[in-house]
Amino acid sequence: MNPALISFGIQSVLRLGRVTNDALEQWARDGEAIFPEINEPDFNREVFVNGFFNEDENKHFVEGDTAPYAEYWDHSAVIPKESAIDALFTAAIKISAEKGDDLNRGWAPGGAILIKQWDPGRGPVSPWARIILTAGDIALEYVAANPSIFDGDGNGEKLIAAYAKNLSDILPDDGDFGPKENFAQRLTSAFLRAGFNTISLNPEWLVSEEHLQELISSSVKPLVETLPDSITEQLKWREIADAIMGPAAKAALQTVAKHQTAFLGDDFDPDKALGEVTRALFLEAAKDGLKDPFTREGLIGLYSAALGVAAERPQLFLGVGQRPENKLARELFSNFAGVLRDSRPPFDGEVGIALASAALGAVGNNIHRFSDDTDLWEQTAAEMVRSLITKFKRALDNNENIKSVFSKSQWIELGRILLSRVAETPLTILGSRNEAWEGVLTAIAAAMEADTNLLLSGDDWLEIVKVAAEEVATNPARLFRLNPADPEDVLAAKLFSAILKSAGAIIEITDLRGKTVLFGKTLREAIIIVLRATSGNSQAAREHLDEIEKLIKKLNGFVVQNHLQYGNKEWLRLFRILLSAMLDGKDISDLTEETANELLKGGS
Amino acid sequence: MRNQILRRLALIVLVLSFAGCTAFQLRDANEQLTTYYYGKQKAIQTDDWRMMENLSLSLRTLASDAAEQAQKEKTVLNQIAFYRIATTAAWQAGDLNVVSYADDGTKLCNDENFNRAPRDCGMLLVIPVFAGVDETTDRFNKLQAEVTKAAADQRASYAQDTQKVFADYRDSLVSILKLRPQIADSAAHSDFMMAVDQNSGKLLCKLIAKDAFGLIATARGDVPKAKCEIYKLKESAFEAGLSQSYADCLPKSKEQLTKPQGCH
Question: 41-80 in B: which are within 8 Å (CB) of A?
Answer without folding.
Answer: 41-45, 48, 51, 55, 75, 77-78
